[in-house]
Each structure stands twice: as structure tokens, then as C-alpha cells.
Amino acid sequence: MILESAAILNWAIPFAGALITPVIGWIAGLLKAEGIKKVLFIIRDWMAVATSFIAFIFSLLLVVDVFNGDTGVELFQTEWFFGLGGGTYGVEFGVLVDPLTVMIACFATGVGTMIMIYGVGYMKDDKHLNRYWFLMQLFIGGMVFLVMSNNLLQSFVGWEIVGFCSYALIGYFFTKKEKQDPREFTIREETEGDYNSHAGLKAFVTTRIGDVMMLTGIMIVFAYAGTFNYMSLLSNTAWMTNLANDRILVLTALLIFGGPIGKSAQFPLQFWLPEAMAGPTTVSALIHAAAMVKAGVYMVARTYPMWYIGYHQLGHNSLQIYFLVVAAVGAFTAFMAATMGMAATELKKILAFSTISQLGYMFIGLGAGGLLTGELGVTGYFAGSFHMLSHAVFKGLLFLSAGAVIHTVHSKYVDEMGGLRKDMPKVFWPMLIGGLSLAGIPPLGGFFSKESVFGVCWELGEHGNSFGWIFLAVAAISAAMTIFYTLRFLGKTFFGEKTENVKHVEKESGGHLHKTGPTMWIPLVILAVGTIALGWLSPIVMNFMSHNEWFPSILNPEIIPIEYGHFLGHTFGFKPPTFWITLGILLAGGLPAYFFYIGRKWDAGKIQEKSKFMRGINTFLYKRWYMNTAIYWCIRKFKRFSELAYEYIDLKIIDRSNYLIASGTMKSGEVFRKTHTGILSVNFIYMLLGAIILLAILLFTL
Prior knowledge:
Elements: H1 6-30, H2 34-67, E1 73-84, E2 87-97, H3 99-122, H4 129-148, H5 152-170, H6 183-187, H7 196-225, H8 230-235, H9 238-242, H10 246-263, H11 272-275, H12 281-290, H13 293-312, H14 319-341, H15 347-370, H16 375-409, H17 425-439, H18 445-462, H19 467-494, H20 500-508, H21 518-546, H22 552-555, H23 564-567, H24 569-573, H25 578-598, H26 604-610, H27 612-622, H28 627-673, H29 680-701
Helix pairs in contact: 1-2, 1-4, 2-3, 2-4, 3-4, 3-12, 3-16, 3-21, 4-5, 5-7, 7-10, 10-13, 10-14, 12-16, 13-15, 13-16, 14-15, 14-19, 15-16, 15-18, 15-19, 16-17, 16-18, 16-21, 17-19, 17-21, 18-19, 18-21, 19-25, 26-27
């Protein structure tokens, strides 16, 4: 390897920066000299950027190592042994270098660096930057620590670091009251995420549900395998056979999958992610593009070979249920979130629903791939992983672009934007590229990665599993809705006439809109270039992912060569014809959206005014299928039940009973105390009466 320590420095440096930068800011805050204070604040801000960039460089060094054949390598492996139940078990620490860990480390630190540069300009007037830079660096370091870990328990530690950071950063503006959408009052539903602290707490509680499930599954694996180590679990699969039966095995797999459901906001734990938009835009970008939600996809991909071996080689057919559940959850979530994105009014929330939907595609690829055999199963693993990489780049671009727009027009609602294309060209063109990649327009990266997921579903159907056709149909319909809401938010933001809000902001700014600074638009350009390049670099990405010790050691004695023509042959050779399906999708979703929001030939508002049915559909989608409403209704009812239980059971029954018993005891004691007069003659009389009573008892019982 070029530098073995790169595998530990790429997460240790952000951790170190998280400790150092707040100290610099604290020292600067104590100084009275304004010049020195300003310099120290600049050093603090750019040091946070530097730690992410240096971590990115070390991650890139690992790319070279993987191409050179250094893959499946465990470094810095240490074990601490302790006794438990008469046995001796080891708690491990170490890092694992393979294509999956290196790929995620690269986009977590690379996209993270762009977000940090953007944050220097976006957050410059904030008064709590010491806390902000600490949490952002800890977030990036925690994500890389999670993926580089060589065992389940260590990954879970990183998992919880990421969860804590997301909670703290979503609720960053914990004293700020969010502006409400006027439609909330007409629908008579309290605003979700009204306070940022509520949104952060909602994310924390919701994801903990999945985390408890995941930890339970991890401990079951440890109980039967005696190790948390990923490579050991693969090399010695006897632990799967040692499980009592297949039901426990599939239950264990599904319990571990509970963690990704929560972290990656899949149904039924998707509620927290739209409210995560309450945090700063940089936080939203980091959560959606580089960290947090990708952790769930990573865990499914990391454990994929383990369950794949159990199903296809060891004959544990119940694991088919696991892969079906993964794909089905992904498919339903992709469809559901896409419908919600079509009606959302907040720019960042539209992108949030988009993230939930695109994460569903990744799970479709991984789930459907697990049902295929041989090399086709490997392509499912690659499809989910490749879409994860592609999404990281274009979604980071979209969120940062959205932040620039919101920063300029002082509103987060797309209905209060419009006509910004000429005033914000440095934001418009990058956001257009990101949006088209999200929609799956060739030849951008999002097209190739989404097409690969379609290809896996097609192969599953072609090989006699009808679920493949179902997954493909749902994915195609979701993709049509994706291009619809993409053109919708692009049209409402940049096209048409300027809204009254934009004109007001323009007037307040002296006749022109605030220009986006270089620290904000340069990251947009870099990410836009990356989005374009990924489409053409997809053969290299596939070749990189093929240097993987997980499948070749099981399915083939040599590293499986994934040729571009083989894996993406349907893209250029039109076999299978998923490319034609993609073209149909683009027309079905794109043409109506163009006429509604770009060309403005149709008026969506008038259609809703004339049709009660359309208003009902729009309200249903805007209210997220009333799922969020149902959750809050249940919480309110449970809270009311708890209040009534406290009032009538706790206070009126339990507490009154306690007081009654205590009072009765005291009163009986007072009555009994009067019999103790201290007079000797009276005591003798009591003794005599007692003796007579005892004698009578003896006489009547004998």
C-alpha cells in the first residue's frame, strides 16, 4: 500500500479538527484585539475545510491501492479480550480497505469538502460557529469511521456518532421559529418541524427505533459466531448453520436491516427526513449527499455478501424473504416519496422527498440483485453502490444550489421564487445539471446509475421471478414522477415572472439581487463537473468496484471482470430494452411538467381550482398520505391517555390508597398508643386479660 496509515488518517484528521477548531474559536473570543480575533476566526473556518480536504486526499490514496490489488486488507487490527459466561470473546478495532469502504470514504470527504467550503460563506454571520464546525467535522469523521471499520460493533459506534451529529445539526437553530406555509392553516394541521429542536429530536427518536433493531441483530450474530468481524463472518459461515433454524436467521437479517430503514429514511421510518430541512442548508447537503442516509445503504451493501452466501450457497432459502423485503421496501418508498415530492412547496423538502425516493432505488438494486445467481447477483450489488455514488454528487449539488437560492430570495418556498435564471446564472446552470441528473437524463451520471438499477430488475424478471417486473414497473413510474417534480421546482425557481417576494427582496437590496460569493458558487461548479463526468467515468467506477474480495472468493477464483459493454450493454446495445423504457419515462413525466412549469402553457393552479378531486389529491400528497398526521394523532392520543392515567389512576387511586393506608396506620397507632398508660396496675390487668384469652384459646382448640 502507498500509505497504510491513510486508512486511519482519513477519519482521524476530521476528529482531531473537531477538537482543535473550537479551541481556536474560543481563544479568539477571549481576545480584545479585533485584528487578531478576525485572523483567528478565519484560521478556524478554513482549518475545518482543510481537515476535510486532507481526509479526501488520504481517501484518494486508497483508490490507488485498490486498483493495485490491495483490497480486502485489514489494518491496525487489535483485540481486547474479556470473559463472558465462561467464554472468552474479543472486542475488535481495525479498518478494512476494499472498494466499498474506499468509495464511500471518497465521496464523504470529497463532497464534504465542497460543503465545508460552501459553509464558509453561507454561515459567516452565525454566532455559534465553534459548535457548527465541531459538529460538521465530527459528522464527516464519524461517517468515514463507520464505513472503514472492519467489524459490526465498531461500525455501530460510528453509526451512533453520525446519529448524534445529525440530531445536533438538524436542531442547530434551536431558538429559531420556522416560517409557516399559509396552506397549513387552511388544512388545519399544525406545522411539522416548526421548531428546529423538535425536528432534531424527531430525527433522533425515529432513527433510534431502527438502531435498537440493528443492535439486537448484531448481538444475535455475535452470540452464534463469537465475532463481529466482517471478513471472519464470511470466511467461516458455520455460524449461520448453528442458528436454531432459518426463521431466526432471516429474523436476524431483518433486524439488522431495521437500522438502514431508520438511517436511510425508508418506509415506515421515513418521517424524520423532511423535517431535517430545519437545519442549515449545509447540514441538509451533508445528511443527504455525504453522510447519515448513505450509512443505511452502506450497511445493506456491507452485509449483502453474508446473506447472499447463506441463500445461494448454504441453502438457507428463508433469506429470499430478506432480499424481497429489501427490494419491496425500496420500491414502495421510491414510489411514495416521489408522489410527495410532486406536491411539496418548500424547495429543500422537495429535495428531501427526492432523497428518500432515490435511496429506495438503491435498495431495489441491492434487494433484486440478491435474488439473482452468479455474476448477475454481483451486478445488483454494483448497481446499488453505483447509484449511491452518483446520488452523492448530484444531490450535494442540488442542496447547495437550493441554499444559494434561499439565501438570495430569503424564502424557502418555491411559490415565492421565480424568474431567477438571468440574475443567478452561476447557480442556475449547476442546479440544472444536478436536476437533470436526478431525473435520469443521459449522458449524466444519474442516468447511468438509475439505468443499472432498471437493468437488475429486468434481469430478475427475465430469469423467471415476476417480482422483477413489479419492481421495474414501480421504479419506472417513480422515475416519471421524478422528472415531473424536478422540472416543477426548476421551473418555479428560475423560470416565469419574478414573484412579489423576489421583487421585494430586489428592491430592499438596492435594485438587484444579492450575488452569490465564490465560496458558494465554486463548489457548485466542481460538483456539476463531477455530475457530468460520472456518466462517462462509469466504466472506471465499475472496474474499481470489481476489485472486490467478497464475491470473487465465493463465486469465482479470479476477480470478476465487469466489462462496460456487459454491465451497461442495455444502455448502448438496447438489450434489454430498459433504455426505451427510460425514454418513455422521460416523455411521460417531462412533457406535462414542461407545459405546466417551464413553457407555462398550462396552469396547475386553475386546474386545481376547477376540480375538487385534483384539490383532494394535491392535499393528500401534500400531507404525505396523512402518514405523518396519523403518527402525530397517535402520539397526541397516547399523551392524552397518559395524562388521564396519571390523573385518575396514579393520583386518585394509587396515591389516595397510599395516603389512606398511611393515615389509617397513623390513626390506629394513636388509638393503640392510648392503651400504654405506664400505670403498673393497669399493665397487670392487661397481662391478666391476655393470659385469660390465651387459656381460653387453648381450651377451645384442644
